[in-house]
Design a protein that fits this description.
456 residues, alpha+beta, Immunoglobulin-like, elongated
């Protein structure tokens, strides 16, 4: 029943997007009608020359207003018909992309759009609304156009600072164009298919330099201060020779194949070239439907992960980022852009735990979160804590504690400010709150016990 009600509300809301007039027109019509009746019924000096002149002036003002509004309506209608004609005959070019430079400069997601051919109403506006992720709509917006745009033009190109809530990949499926007059009384909407996708970028925050050395030897071009264990060969066995230690004979293979083979010992290599960075988005808890975990916690985890990667790259390391989930194809040859895309599009999951994900022979850094399994972290750190640096990201740091003063201000003083306030209040009464905070405490104690804790 609730689902049907939501679908009905959504359809009504979408139908409202296509109403051909705005609230401004309704308010103006009501005010003009009231003013006309008030002034036209003025009986201060009936049957006088003043009354006749006043009545004539009212009629002139009425016809002048109607003429101006009609011209505004006509300009919108011409632009609409021009657009529909080109849409049917030639097709409309609609391009959408992200502007990385502008996004990082303003710390907001900047979207660049280009539409042609389209004719702007005389002194009017062309606004847009985007349908994304199947059921979500953006607010109606105008583009910040290029200042060099000509007065008469059949194309529109500009940017829009879109306040999107999550760091992820968004799929734009449709666009609604609004042709509005100079008074914004009329607003004719046309739907336009717009198959496109883009991802929001995690911003980088300052993190302290990490004391990490490469473990994986791919090119012996960087000497390290501390010797690291490196596997001898891809196949870790070889035939027994006279000078081999008999204690390394693998008797299980001999019993099966009657061949004497020995295990190749690990070697201490003074050279290494690559840092393998593992980031676990595995969740030991069922977090489905928990807004605080799925939005601010996930955003915070992605921001810190990207910051750690950037920190290692700036220090001159060859960093290999290993995702723990399948990443859709992204047409970019730049390694750092691919890593940013991989981090941005990752989600909490329960498909691949730490034991399955982390290759302990290569890993130099493993990033874990408050949702990681304490038992799995303990096993890894007990066996490989000397070789692998574990970075622990406390997700609850992304939200300040909700205290009684906040609740009083929300109830009696302040209105709802933004989505973060909503997430704070929801998190403070969430059943997962105590479980995750207890898990954070255990992970903190575990890291402090076995190695110098790196908490971000």
């Amino acid at each position: 029943m609730n689902m049907k009600l939501l679908l009905t509300k959504d359809k009504i809301r979408q139908a409202g997007f296509y109403i051909p007039f705005t609230v401004y027109f309704v308010v103006f019509a009501a005010a003009a009608s009231f003013g006309w009746n008030l002034l036209n019924n003025n009986e201060i000096q009936p049957d006088s020359s003043f009354a006749d002149i006043f009545s004539l002036l009212l009629k002139v003002a009425l016809w002048f207003t109607v003429a101006i509004i009609f011209i505004a309506f006509l300009s919108v209608l011409v632009s609409l018909l021009h657009f529909i004609y080109n849409k049917r005959k030639k097709g409309i070019s609609f391009q959408i992309s992200t502007d990385l430079t502008e996004s990082e400069l303003h710390e907001k997601q900047t979207v660049r759009l280009a539409i042609s051919p389209v004719l702007k109403p005389l002194f009017g506006f062309i606004k847009l609304r985007l349908l994304y992720d199947q059921s979500h709509f953006s607010s109606k917006f105008s583009l910040l156009e290029n200042s060099k745009r000509r007065f008469f033009s059949t194309s529109i190109e500009g940017t829009y600072h879109w306040p999107l809530p999550q760091i992820k990949e968004y799929h734009v499926e449709n666009a609604i164009l609004y042709f509005e007059d100079v008074f914004q009384f009329f607003s004719f909407a046309v739907s336009l298919p717009a198959k496109s996708r883009f991802f929001t970028h995690p911003t980088a925050k300052n993190v302290k330099d990490l004391s990490i050395s490469p473990r994986k030897t791919e090119e012996t071009n960087t000497r390290i201060e501390q010797l690291r264990k490196v596997e001898g060969e891809f196949l870790n066995y070889k035939n027994f020779e006279n000078n081999d230690d008999v204690r390394r004979i693998v008797w299980k293979i001999y019993a099966k194949n009657k061949e004497l083979v020995v295990r190749i010992p690990e070697i201490m290599d003074p050279y290494a070239s690559h840092i393998y960075l593992y980031t676990s988005f595995f969740s030991h808890f069922n977090v489905g439907g928990n807004g605080a975990v799925e939005v601010p916690f996930l955003n915070y985890f992605k921001v810190v992960t990207w910051s750690v990667y950037q920190n290692l790259v700036k220090r001159g390391f060859e960093v290999r980022y290993i995702p723990d989930q399948e990443v859709s194809k992204n047409n970019t040859a730049d390694e750092q852009q691919w890593v940013k895309y991989s981090i941005s599009t990752s989600k909490w999951h329960q498909a691949k735990d730490l034991k399955t994900y982390v290759k302990t022979s290569d890993a130099s850094v493993v990033i874990i979160s408050s949702l990681s399994n304490t038992g799995e972290v303990r096993d890894l750190i007990e066996n490989h804590g000397k070789d692998i640096t574990f970075i622990f990201i406390r997700l609850t740091d992304s939200l300040k504690n909700q205290n009684i003063i906040d609740w009083v201000q929300w109830l009696f003083v302040q209105n709802q400010k933004d989505d973060i306030d909503v997430y704070k209040r929801a998190w403070s009464v969430s059943p997962l709150r105590l479980k995750i905070k207890d898990n954070e405490k255990q992970l903190t104690e575990l890291l402090e016990k076995y190695q110098e804790a790196v908490k971000l």
